[in-house]
Design goal:
Layout lengths: L23 E9 L4 E10 L6 H5 L7 H18 L5 E6 L12 H10 L6 E6 L7 H14 L2 E7 L8 H4 L4 E4 L1 H4 L6 H17 L2 E5 L4 H9 L4 E3 L7 E2 L7 H14 L1
Parallel strand pairs: 2-3, 3-4, 4-5, 5-6, 6-7, 7-8
Antiparallel strand pairs: 1-2, 1-8, 1-9
Helix pairs in contact: 2-3, 8-9
Length: 263
């Protein structure tokens, strides 16, 4: 891992210059079925004219990677504050764009202090499909963030380069089960076996489990019946640019009722 380029005045040659393109954030709720409340709002990058995340990410170059990562963090927190969010804001981050955890978080810490945003209301998600060149470095990041008061999550768990072996070194607060494990889980016995194993694993390790990519009522009901209270997906709300959505209360009641009916 290369050295951080932040100088004695706190300026970084990698992170402090502007980007050649603009972007904004869409928010998608992570729902707590048991309470009917929003557990967190995930911030997802979008273009200011509605461009997809893929279109925006295609504009990121190796030279702008670090500025983009920093910009995503601060843009998400600023927008969440402006929209009156009182829940966790969940932000994806790039481990390979973090040179020194305590230095590369300074812009986030400064903005949070200016806005009065509690650090415990920020969750950083590392996407499992991003190739992590240095697992020990990722471990240092997670440990540093935990010491600062942030929550950390492994996103897209069950897909990508790293799988269960990541949990040997990394101690996340949250695991987000990938859509590939969720699709048709109510009728697919192999996915059911995998999800039931993941439920047992996270319970044993004291990790919260979120099912992401939930798209049907049947999927949501099966998951809730097995104790997965935290869910995210199109069933509840699609990502909305610079807007925070709430899940339909009647939908939550339907899912809860399914658990009672299955007893």
């Amino acid at each position: 891992m290369s050295q951080c380029l932040r100088d004695d005045q706190g300026h970084c040659r990698r992170c402090d210059n502007g980007l050649e393109f603009d972007f904004t954030m869409a928010f998608q709720p992570i729902v707590d079925i048991a309470t009917g409340e929003v557990f967190a709002q995930e911030a997802l990058v979008r273009g200011v004219n509605g461009e997809s995340a893929g279109e925006i990410l295609s504009r990121v170059t190796p030279a702008s990677l670090y500025r983009f990562d920093q910009g995503c963090r601060t843009r998400a927190i600023q927008l969440a504050h402006d929209l009156g969010c009182e829940q966790l804001v969940s932000i994806n981050f790039l481990p390979n764009a973090v040179y020194e955890p305590s230095a590369c978080i300074q812009a986030t810490l400064k903005l949070a202090d200016e806005l009065g945003w509690p650090l415990q209301n920020i969750m950083f998600e590392v996407t499992e499909t991003e190739y992590v060149r240095d697992r020990r470095h990722l471990q240092r990041i997670v440990e540093a963030y935990r010491a600062m008061g942030f929550l950390t999550a492994l996103d897209d768990f069950g897909a990508g380069y790293a799988n269960l072996e990541l949990l040997v070194d990394i101690r996340p607060d949250v695991i987000k089960a990938d859509r590939n494990l969720i699709i048709d889980v109510n009728q697919n016995e192999r996915r059911q076996a995998l999800m039931e194993g993941l439920i047992t694993l996270t319970n044993r390790l004291g990790i919260r489990l979120i099912a992401e990519g939930v798209e049907t009522l049947a999927e949501a009901c099966w998951l809730y019946q097995r104790g997965i209270k935290l869910q995210q997906g199109y069933l509840f709300a699609r990502p909305a640019i610079e807007t925070m959505s709430l899940p339909p209360s009647d939908l939550i009641e339907q899912i809860r009722a399914s658990a009672s009916a299955s007893v």
